[in-house]
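ping. complex inputs:
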Amino acid sequence: MGSEATLFYLFGAVAVLASLLVIGQRNPIYSVLLLIASFGALSGLYVLLDAPFAAVIQIIVYAGAIMVLFLFVVMLLNAPHEDTDYDERTHPLLRPGPMRFGAVLALVLIVELVWALTKGSESGAFAGGSTSSVADIGRSLFTTYAFPFEVTSILILVAMVGAVVLARREEQ
Amino acid sequence: MNSVSSGTGIPLLVAQIGLTLFVFVALLSSAAGMVYVERKVAALLQQRLGPYLVGPKGLLQPLADVIKLMFKEELRPRAADAFLFALAPIIAATCAFAAFAVVPFGGDTTLFGLLPERLRLQVADVNVAVLVVFAIASMSVYGIVLAGWSSNSKYSLLGGLRSSAQMISYELSYGMALASVLVVANSLSLTDIVNRQANTWLGFLPRWFIFIQPVGFFIYLTAGIAETNRAPFDFPEAEQELVAGYHTEYSSMSFAMFFLAEYVNMVTVSAVATDLYLGGWQGPFLPESLGWIWFLLKVGALLFFYVWMRWTLPRYRYDQLMRFGWKVLLPLSVLNLLATAAGVLYFGSNLGL
Amino acid sequence: MVTLNHYLVLSAILFAIGTAGVFVRRNLITILLSIEIMLNAVNLSFVAFGRALGAADGQIIVFFVMTVAAAEAAVGLAIVISLFRHRESLNPDSFTALKW
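pong. complex structure:
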């Protein structure tokens, strides 16, 4: 349908542009907010892919919790603007050291990934019908994937305890 | 959606757009009405008169407030981040309104025969509606934390961080109370949940979820009050404390947007509580197409409860507030969820009732 | 007509942007944000494939990836905070104490 393609390109463009700005601009608070915008666009893409559950938990978990954590840390540390010890006017491919490597790597990576991912399927069209409801997801999560589910609960516990211990001030 | 039009009726698309506009205007009016109700009820509780000069019985007081706010000077601190300073009230107000988009407030109606087919009184019928409300509520934290940060003032930053920490702490109990209702109702769609609360037990007791989940209702309402930063959980805004918290540096229409966002959030929390626990638009004596009258009555009762709480209970101190959220409400909500799950496992869905 | 390949190309582009961010940026928090971009790109691939195969597994894996990302972000930020307390800087180049 025409509207689906329009929405895909719109959300895709927002996601790519926001991600480029996240890595492209100096102020860390703007980076966090732009990443939230990117997550919103991805959430829209999930809705287009008939995955409303993934879309909503993307907003709840990523945009609503993890990014709040990032924002708190940026604000509490009063993260300074990144100091520029390189010439800002030169192209990333010409800057010294890791930046050149990173830019070249990204370009090579895009080409490789696009080639690898589109090589497989013939037309790559989507299967019609058969979308899964939240009830299906829940049923599968607690039967087939029950073990990873329990393991992630231990993972979160470990992360919580670890984060508290690491960020605690040393008692003199 | 197709615009079906019969010979004598309104096309469905027009009705949908009209419904969206109607909900928007209704939320705005309800916020204005809440201003009046709050001041009148506060006055009655404190044995004084409240607004009585402007308009008959002071009914035009909200209008006077809005006009006053519009004429105030729009200030911005020089060292404030201009873009974020302007963005924060927009985020707060937008999330407040957007959350109401998935809340159904009436049964199918044909607007007294004008429409070609039945129209659900809900702007967007999503079948993960409960999660959408939760998601948008968790986005409204950003309005507050950005307001605190971008004002570039100590009081605002502390107030903003405290408010947002409070909001994300109470979101956990909010979510668990929602999950308990989901376990009983077996569906994420608000319309389904309301439809499950139709009919009565023994002929007179309506099948509302509040009777199956009384603790859950208490938890939900308490977490909702804390989420909307209302008393007794409004420490960050307390006048004697951090001046005015995250909206210290705001004036005129930006301040009005925060004000508006707070009242619309109250209305949304009350509306969702009505749909989840009090049976939504179900009620005796009225046909389903007039169910919105019952909805209004129930939401009005909950809003009165909100105002009553504000002017009756003393304010929690910030550490008491956080302790209550984490050490009392969260374990209680987890136990509620476990008990509900055990009950559903033993008695079958809807607890066999 | 939007096919699976469209989504996979978009996912590849986002992943590459994230990788570039990890190399190019000299700020610990922005590096963590770039890692989140990479994880999201992978999530998009999972959901796209799940839709293409008509299975719920795509969304379930996304659920687990999000959980892992949350845990990793929490611990990573705790490490960043304790590093900042030592050096007052978020530039990874200032943490060279273990270099020969």
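Residues 4-94 of chain C form a domain with the Helix Hairpins fold (CATH 1.10.287.3510).
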